[in-house]
Design a protein that fits this description.
This protein has 563 residues and is mostly helical. 57% of the residues lie in helices and 4% in strands. The protein is built from 25 helices and 4 strands. The protein has a 4-stranded mixed β-sheet with strand order 1-2-4-3, sandwiched between helices. Helix 2 packs antiparallel against helix 7, helix 12 runs antiparallel to helix 15 and helix 15 runs antiparallel to helix 17.
């Protein structure tokens, strides 16, 4: 859908950065301009073209921010978001301070968080190296390798930035780590020393780390405040931070052991406060590696043919960065650079996959948290050899090749689901209308679950608290890969009755049509066809219809009579 000029601009940015990196003397301002320009081209184009924020799942976050802003506080009985309200309370404070609703700046959240990611990334990586070529290359690879779309207006994006700050403070603060005094501690220290002696060693390459901008006490204060913000904002990020800090304390001995222990106590304390809400609704441990965020029953190859290309593009990026990281690690070891802390921080996020599948997204979160440190080693692999006789313009051929491959794959991996990720104004208007007019404890069902909802401050009153997610008829009924017929209405009615909610509504939108088309769930025109069928049913009463979005109220009839 984009004009050729967009791809020409994207290619010029990639080539220009490589050319700037090939100069004998780096110009940080020029490289910074390339990084900022790439962020705006990748993440600022959609806000300029779209009327509404991307992703249907961003809209519940708008509702929580509006609810806290109007209520002036949180209610732990409402939903899981109110049990981790740090990010939402910050958004509510900003709304009350400026009078600007969260929906007004949600579109530009991806630009903001990627700019923040770059700043936090460079701060954290300076705890490992002061080599500016490595830092700029790692920053560039991070932007090209981050296709997992966890940078929208969400607690995850907020917590990820703060987690990089916490790790950067830990790596740069030079906190005193007590020498091992126990037998297991001595055994672990000896084992690490033996492994280090077995690794290949070459000529020592000087690479001093920048001095810490904070004193040890200042580092503890800043890191502690950021960690408290993470604990109160997101469920998963503190677990990753605790795992990484424990590794830095026990193995790399970069921080005292009491630091991760104190972090764990804070996390357990907050979890205990949320436990009355969590216990009857969620599983704390759910290590299901086979779970997937894709629709139930989806197999690679279903749906539109481009979906396969999108899936393989992400896998190519992962494989390429892991391969480069291994090569870069070996190059660093030959240069007698012992980057044990960075290796630990690559492996620590594996705890996510082993403890909580996170609805099929655990593997993507592992990749996101490991990505900064993977990119550091990948940057080392892309560095030109010292003894090369190539001209300056050709010395960066490794970086040029990697940049081209990652850039091409990123466009497919990051924008491959755009048919479903784009949200139309008519869908948002329908959701707002419903939340303004629906009675309390209502259940809103969709043909698919891909539509905006829970986006106003009234959502705690409107929606049935025991159905926080939007039920999908496709997943409950065998409606896949065929046109919905009049004979399916009875089955839909039975499904609606089984929910047990007092007020049940069915919403049909264009976003559901695009989602079903993308994943091959239903043939084209299924949403309009179902809407026409339901208009003739005495059990479904059309209460809203505008610009392709329809809302029906279901009411069980007596002997087929219209309610």
């Amino acid at each position: 859908a984009m004009p050729p000029s967009y791809f020409v601009a994207f290619a010029l940015l990639l080539a220009g950065f490589v050319a700037a990196m090939s100069r004998p003397v780096l110009e940080p301002r020029l490289l910074g301009l390339y990084v900022v320009a790439l962020i705006f081209v990748l993440h600022g184009t959609a806000p300029l073209l779209y009327d509404e924020p991307r992703y249907s799942w961003v809209y519940p976050h708008l509702g929580v921010i509006s609810f806290i802003a109007e209520a002036g506080g949180v209610d732990r009985d409402v939903d899981i978001y109110n049990n981790w309200p740090g990010f939402f309370a910050t958004g509510a404070w900003l709304t009350r301070l400026t009078g600007v609703p969260a929906s007004a700046y949600a579109e530009w959240a991806q630009v903001f968080f990627n700019l923040a990611n770059v700043a936090a990334l460079r701060f954290a990586l300076r705890g490992v190296t002061g080599n500016e070529r490595l830092l700029w290359t790692a920053t560039w690879l991070f932007l090209l390798g981050n296709w997992v779309a966890q940078d929208y207006l969400a607690p995850q994006a907020f917590a990820f930035v703060l987690s990089l700050v916490v790790l950067g403070v830990a790596l740069r603060a030079e906190l005193r780590s007590v020498l091992p005094r126990t037998r297991p501690g001595h055994w672990l220290a000896e084992l690490i020393a033996r492994l280090r002696a077995l690794l290949p060693h070459g000529r020592l390459v000087p690479e001093p780390r920048p001095a810490s901008p904070l004193s040890p006490k200042g580092a503890l204060l800043v890191g502690g405040i950021c960690y408290l913000a993470v604990v109160t904002s997101h469920q998963l990020t503190p677990v990753v931070l605790i795992a990484g800090m424990t590794g830095l304390a026990l193995i790399a001995r970069r921080v005292p052991l009491w630091v991760p222990l104190a972090m764990a106590l804070v996390e357990l304390g907050w979890l205990a406060l949320a436990w009355p809400y969590l216990a009857p609704r969620y599983d704390l441990f759910d290590p299901d590696p086979a779970s997937s965020a894709a629709p139930a029953g989806y197999q690679l190859g279903d749906g539109l043919s481009g979906l396969v290309l999108s899936a393989y593009a992400g896998r190519i990026e992962l494989l390429l960065l892991v391969t480069l990281a291994l090569v870069g690690l070996m190059r660093r070891l030959r240069a007698r650079r012992w980057d044990l802390a960075a290796v630990i921080l690559v492996a620590a996020p594996l705890l996510i996959v082993g403890v909580q599948s996170y609805g099929g997204e655990g593997r993507f979160r592992f990749y996101l948290f490991a990505l900064p440190w993977l990119c550091l080693f990948a940057a080392a692999a892309c560095a030109p050899a010292k003894a090369t006789r190539l001209p300056a313009a050709l010395r960066s051929w490794r970086l040029a090749l990697v940049t081209g491959v990652l850039g091409a794959c990123l466009l497919f991996a990051y924008f491959g689901l755009e048919l479903s990720n784009r949200v139309r104004s008519a869908d948002v208007d329908a959701a707002v209308w419903f939340e303004r007019h629906a009675p309390p404890n209502s259940l809103l069902v969709g043909l698919t679950s891909s539509f905006p909802r829970r986006l106003t401050a009234r959502y705690p009153e409107v929606y049935d608290p025991w159905h926080p997610a939007a039920p999908s008829l496709i997943e409950r009924l065998s409606l896949r890969n065929r046109q919905v017929a009049a004979g399916d209405v009875r089955r839909i009615e039975r499904s609606m009755r089984r929910f047990g909610a007092r007020h049940v509504f069915l919403i049909l939108t264009s976003s559901q049509e695009r989602f079903a088309r993308l994943f091959g769930l239903l043939p084209p025109g299924s949403v309009d066809s179902l809407a026409q069928i339901l208009r003739t049913s005495p059990s479904f009463h059309l209460i809203h219809a505008r610009a392709g979005a329809s809302i029906f109220r279901y009411q069980r009839t007596a002997k087929g009579r219209s309610p």
